[in-house]
Amino acid sequence: MNAGHTLPDVDEKGTVFITGASGGIGAAFAKEMGRRRFDLILTGRRREQLEQLAQELIHVHNIRAEVITAELADEDALEQLAEKVHSEAQLEILINNAGFGTGGAPFHEQDYAMHQAMLKVHVQATVRLTYAALPILLARHRGAIINVSSLAAFFPIPYHTMYIATKEFIRAFSEALAIELRGSGVQVQALCPGFTRTDFHARLGADPERFYRARGPMKAMSAEEVVQASLRCLARGDVICVPGAHNRFVSYLPYLVPRRLQHWLLGRFGRQMAM
Question: For the chain: N or C, fewer Cβ within 10 A?
Answer without folding.
Answer: N
